[in-house]
Amino acid sequence: MARRPQRRPVVELYERIVDAVREGTYPPGSTLPSEPELAAALGVSRPALREALILLQEDGVITVRRGVGRTVNEGPARRGFERLQPLEALLGSGEVRVRALVRDIEEPTDLVMQHLPVPAAGEVRFWESAVDVDGSPACLVEEWSLHDEGLAAVDPDLPGALEAGEQAGRTMLHTLVSAAGDLPLSGDSTVTATVLGRRRGAVVQRPPDTPVVLVTQVVSVDRTPLLAAKYALPSGAPSIVVRQSR
């Protein structure tokens, strides 16, 4: 029997809160209980809860306002746009190295299902990578893609290309851009400000409360989304040039 993909603990907690929003326990427009109250209600530690709350804020499920607290949003955040290039190519002219942290198959989260055409019982590829510039961690990359069947429906060469990209230690976006050929790739993105959190901070060797710029991106071929990604750039990371035209 095939191994059932497992969700990470922070994802399980994230989904529990999303389910509570969907079921009306915390309806849109309401303010979540304080951290101690919410942690007690969910039976989890405050550090674990804080990690899930960071993800909920990043994904547009909640908004944090000084003096108000964490408010549940009416719907998913709107998306913008940016020039589509692999992150490794945007982080300056220094020595750039991608470190593979996780390469796995997992169940899709609520965020992934908002952006990728996968069912709740389906599977997605999940890659987590650290991008180092001149030997220092500059970005944490989290990427989800359609699994083989969905990729092959767009282009039969894409599943093999991702396998090769995994072996070569690339990010998913780098792999897709390199393998796409004449495929009309496009990217929709949002840019928000948050903090690293404990788990991400440990990866990039920064304190959990380090300010971070978070880019959330969805990459599509025509109207078919293939990839959803998060790029967490802590303060002090190299600047990224985004060229826009009209």
Radius of gyration: 18 Å
Number of strands: 9
Described by strand count, sense and barrel closure, the largest sheet is:
7 strands, antiparallel
Mean pLDDT over all positions = 84
Q: Biggest sheet, strands in spatial order?
A: 3-7-8-9-6-5-4
Q: Span from first to last CA? A: 53 Å
Notable traits:
two-stranded antiparallel ribbon, single chain, 9 strands, 246 residues, Arc Repressor Mutant, subunit A, 30% helix, 30% strand, alpha+beta, Chorismate lyase, Bact_HTH_transcr_reg
Give a brief description:
With 246 residues, the protein is of the alpha+beta class.
Notes on the protein architecture:
- The chain is α+β, with helices and mostly antiparallel strands.
- Helix 1 (9-22) crosses helix 3 and helix 6 packs across helix 7 (172-179).
- Helices cover 30% and strands 30% of the residues.
- A seven-stranded antiparallel sheet has the order 3-7-8-9-6-5-4, with helices on both faces. It has a two-stranded antiparallel ribbon with strand order 1-2.
Q: Strands, helices and their partners?
A:
Layout: H1 9-22, H2 35-42, H3 46-58, E1 62-65, E2 69-72, E3 80-81, E4 96-106, H4 110-115, E5 124-133, E6 136-146, H5 148-154, H6 158-168, H7 172-179, E7 185-195, H8 198-204, E8 211-221, E9 224-234
Antiparallel strand pairs: 1-2, 3-7, 4-5, 5-6, 6-9, 7-8, 8-9
Organism: Saccharopolyspora rosea
Keywords: DNA-binding, Transcription, Transcription regulation
InterPro entries: Bact_HTH_transcr_reg, Chorismate_lyase_/UTRA_dom_sf, Tscrpt_reg_HTH_GntR, WH-like_DNA-bd_sf, WH_DNA-bd_sf
